[in-house]
Write a structure and sequence with these properties.
The chain is mainly alpha-helical and about 150 residues long. It has 5 helices and 4 strands; from the N terminus they run H-E-H-E-H-H-H-E-E. Belongs to the tubulin polyglutamylase family.
């Protein structure tokens, strides 16, 4: 991202740069700096009026395998708490938490994937490698033989 564009937009809003010890609303820095300053170990917590341009552990959202794990964990927590969000329909599908398709993390979930694949043999599956971005390495399969184990 072009730094001059950011600065120009900040100035248009009347925002001014301040030192790290001053009261601030937006902290703009590199991932490494955010990780060091706002880590759990430092004990620093943002105030309600403060935002940063990188989330600690942001990769938990940007890596699809980790995002799916977190969503599944959230679903389990909602079920344990008997939250209305964990409601399922007569087919066992989530009513409110149905925003991700059936997803498996391979190779760990391989057997479950094969079971689901065989239930719907004419379906097409999207395979997305972990740790890749911008569509690199994505491919489709409609036969188990197309999947490298």
């Amino acid at each position: 991202m072009d730094k001059s564009v950011l600065i120009s937009n900040f100035e248009k809003r009347g925002w001014i740069p301040v030192g790290p010890e001053d009261d601030w609303n937006v902290y703009w820095s590199s991932v490494l700096t955010v990780r060091n300053i706002f880590s759990v170990e430092t004990g620093y917590r943002l105030s309600d009026n403060q935002i940063i341009n990188h989330y600690p552990n942001h990769y938990e959202l940007t890596r699809k395998d980790l995002m799916v794990r977190n969503i599944k964990r959230y679903r389990r927590e909602m079920e344990r708490e008997n939250s209305p969000l964990s409601e399922k329909d007569e087919n066992g599908k989530y009513v409110h938490l149905d925003f991700i398709p059936v997803t498996f993390i391979l190779p760990a979930d391989y057997n479950m994937f094969v079971e689901e694949f065989r239930k719907n043999p004419s379906s097409t599956w999207i395979m997305k490698p972990c740790g890749k971005s911008q569509g690199v390495g994505i491919f489709l399969i409609n036969k188990l033989s197309q999947l490298k184990r």
